[in-house]
């Protein structure tokens, strides 16, 4: 593995560095142009370029190592990514009990079902160099769907406390009283992905297709495969949004069907009349 | 449910005196709070309140802003959970009842109508629908006529005035045929004429149906007009309760 890695470095490093130098020169030109207009971004650009180069070289080394990793390592990496995604998404659910677990279950459900489905269909291979990048795309989108549904549900419920409690006071179950806000939260998690699917190929050509075409794959197959991935992203987002909203709804009501989700700390009378 | 033969033209105390200890079901009839307390973090919203409201009786809850009036009323409907104490409905601890059943039996009308988007009829039919019951056209028409809104069945709720919306809210609550009615400043957002009309309506339905009724109001004149008894809450505590005139004159 190490020999191959070194071999890659020997073969490609000079070419890569030459191309990187070209890109840096172009960036330096832009910095100088900015300077002419008294926009000083020299220091920040230099740091950003240095960081970007070092990080990408590091990622390249990790990926080279992964090419030879086992499926178990791939699964562990995806699990770690899911956990990191849950940490990020749970920041939108401050004040909700077990928000980290909520986000983790939702993202794991969406991404897990879809990745397993893609593996079963043969749309994804257990080759770690394919599994991890495609899996990460699905996890990242599930993370966004999770955060969007949590945010929307919380915002809608706290803005409509009176209507929800009016429903509860008439003997409705929490699921019925909160139904309109449940729907809007799940829809909010799907909408960006639906737009993504609609604009596919018209407004943007996503990275997977671009990468496959650059690597010499048939453009038609690359296009179809890109569609499969975006459709799977939609499916993962739907499952994640649904699970996240279901768990949010459960945590928003007590066992005695009392709405416990509040915009802030309860104040006497004012909270009651919110 | 055993009904107490209370008539408003009788003196309430006299009727209560007629109730004998040998009739426990009758004695327990109504809504009773036992040391009802609710604290949130370090703030006590309702502190150790024990009162009883009889069928056919209207109890006004008055007090300064932020005194805990609405918090107390919400506890009666179990929209919030008591920290200490409980509420008995016709002698039964309300925690033994499924929350949905309790809330159907003790309806609540809020400060704002909070009508659901759609028609007046759909709003009125909402409560029974939760039990799998479908109100007939005639039943909806009868309820709307009772609250003074004949011909409003197919009206969209977005086109109603504040007073009309509050009447629909009352009809929607009455559709569940509750034994108790809780009202949280139901007329505070209405003009004087609409407010008086709602008061008349309340007096009528509470009389007709012999309902237990508790109304939060900041308007002591309103309490004098409609309430048999009045309780005053300050800083979450019960400071006075008794016949309305007597309590309000003394405070």
Describe the structure.
The complex is a heterodimer of chains A (274) and B (251). Chain A folds into 2 domains: 1-68; 70-274, Multidrug efflux transporter AcrB transmembrane fold (Up-down Bundle), CATH 1.20.1640. Chain A is built from 10 helices and no strands. Chain A has helices spanning 2-36, 42-66, 71-90, 99-121, 128-159, 161-169, 174-177, 179-198, 207-214, 219-252. In chain A, helix 3 (71-90) packs parallel to helix 5 (128-159) and helix 4 packs across helix 5 (128-159). Chain B has one domain: P-loop containing nucleotide triphosphate hydrolases (Rossmann fold), CATH 3.40.50. Chain B is globular. Helix content of chain B is 37%, strand content 24%. Chain B starts with 11 loop residues before the first helix and ends with a helix. Chain B has 251 residues and is α/β, with parallel strands linked by helices. A 6-stranded mixed β-sheet of chain B has the order 7-8-9-4-10-11, with helices on both faces. Classes of the chains: A mainly alpha (274), B alpha/beta (251). Chains A and B meet through helix 6 of A and helix 3, helix 4, helix 5 and helix 7 of B.
Write the H/E string of chain B, N to C: HHEEEEHEEHEHHHEHEHEEH
**Alpha-beta classification of chain A:** mainly alpha
The structure class of chain B reads alpha/beta
Sketch the topology of chain A as an H/E string, one letter per element.
HHHHHHHHHH
Number of domains of chain B: 1
Low-pLDDT windows of residues of chain A: 265-274
Q: Considering DSSP H and I runs of 4 or more, what fraction of the residues of chain A is helical?
A: over 70%
State the domain count of chain A: 2
From the alpha-carbon coordinates, what is the Rg of chain B to the nearest angstrom? 18 Å
Protein chain pair with the most extensive contact, residues per chain: A-B, 25 and 41 residues
The CATH architecture designation of the largest domain in chain A is Up-down Bundle
CATH topological fold name of the largest domain in chain A: Multidrug efflux transporter AcrB transmembrane fold
Q: Mean pLDDT across all residues of chain A, rounded?
A: 86
The parts of chain B where pLDDT drops under 50 for at least 5 residues are: 1-25
- Average pLDDT taken over every residue of chain B: 87
- Examine the secondary-structure arrangement and name the CATH architecture of chain B: 3-Layer(aba) Sandwich
């Amino acid at each position: 593995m190490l020999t191959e890695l070194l071999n890659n470095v020997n073969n490609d490093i000079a070419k890569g560095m030459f191309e990187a130098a070209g890109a840096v020169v172009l960036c330096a030109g832009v910095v100088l142009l900015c300077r002419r207009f008294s926009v000083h971004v020299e220091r920040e650009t230099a740091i950003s370029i240095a960081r970007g180069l070092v990080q990408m070289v590091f990622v390249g080394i990790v990926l080279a190592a992964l090419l030879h990793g086992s499926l178990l390592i791939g699964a562990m990496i995806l699990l770690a990514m899911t956990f990191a995604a849950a940490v990020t998404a749970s920041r939108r659910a401050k004040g909700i009990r077990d928000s980290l677990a909520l986000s983790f279950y939702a993202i794991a459900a969406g991404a897990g079902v879809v990745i397993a489905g893609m593996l079963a269909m043969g749309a994804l291979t257990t080759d770690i160099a394919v599994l991890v990048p495609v899996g990460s795309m699905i996890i990242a989108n599930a993370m966004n769907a999770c955060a969007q549904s949590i945010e929307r549900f919380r915002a809608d419920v706290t803005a409509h406390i009176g209507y929800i409690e009016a429903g509860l006071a008439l003997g409705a179950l929490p699921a019925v009283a909160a139904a309109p806000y449940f729907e809007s939260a799940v829809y909010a998690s799907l909408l960006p992905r639906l737009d993504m699917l609609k604009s596919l190929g018209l407004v943007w050509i996503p990275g997977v297709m671009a990468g496959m075409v650059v690597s010499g794959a048939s453009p038609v197959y690359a296009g179809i495969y890109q569609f499969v991935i975006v459709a799977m992203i939609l499916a993962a987002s739907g499952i994640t949004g649904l699970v996240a909203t279901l768990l949010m709804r459960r945590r928003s009501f007590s066992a005695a069907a009392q709405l416990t989700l509040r915009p802030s700390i309860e104040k006497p009378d004012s909270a009651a009349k919110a | 449910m055993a009904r107490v033969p209370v008539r408003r033209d009788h003196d309430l105390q006299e009727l209560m005196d007629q109730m004998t200890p040998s009739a426990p079901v009758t004695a327990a009839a109504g809504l009773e709070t036992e040391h009802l307390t609710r604290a949130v973090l370090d703030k006590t919203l309702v502190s150790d309140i024990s009162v009883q409201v009889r069928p056919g009786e209207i109890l006004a809850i008055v007090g300064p802003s932020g005194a805990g009036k609405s918090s107390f009323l919400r506890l009666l409907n179990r929209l919030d959970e008591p920290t200490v104490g409980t509420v008995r409905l016709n002698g039964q601890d309300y925690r033994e009842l499924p929350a949905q059943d309790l809330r159907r039996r003790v309806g609540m009308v809020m400060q704002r109508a909070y009508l659901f988007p759609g028609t007046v009829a759909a709003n009125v039919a909402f409560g029974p629908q939760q039990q799998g019951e479908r109100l007939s056209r005639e039943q909806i028409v009868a309820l709307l006529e009772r609250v003074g809104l004949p011909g409003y069945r197919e009206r969209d709720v977005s086109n109603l005035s504040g007073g009309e919306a509050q009447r629909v809210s009352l009809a929607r609550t009455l559709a569940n045929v509750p034994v108790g009615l809780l009202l949280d400043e139901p007329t505070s957002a209405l003009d004087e004429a609409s407010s008086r009309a709602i008061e008349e309506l309340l007096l009528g339905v509470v009389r007709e149906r012999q309902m237990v009724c508790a109304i939060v109001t900041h308007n002591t004149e309103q309490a004098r007009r409609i309430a048999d008894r009045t309780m005053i809450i300050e800083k979450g505590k019960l400071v006075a309760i008794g016949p309305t005139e007597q309590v309000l004159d003394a405070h």
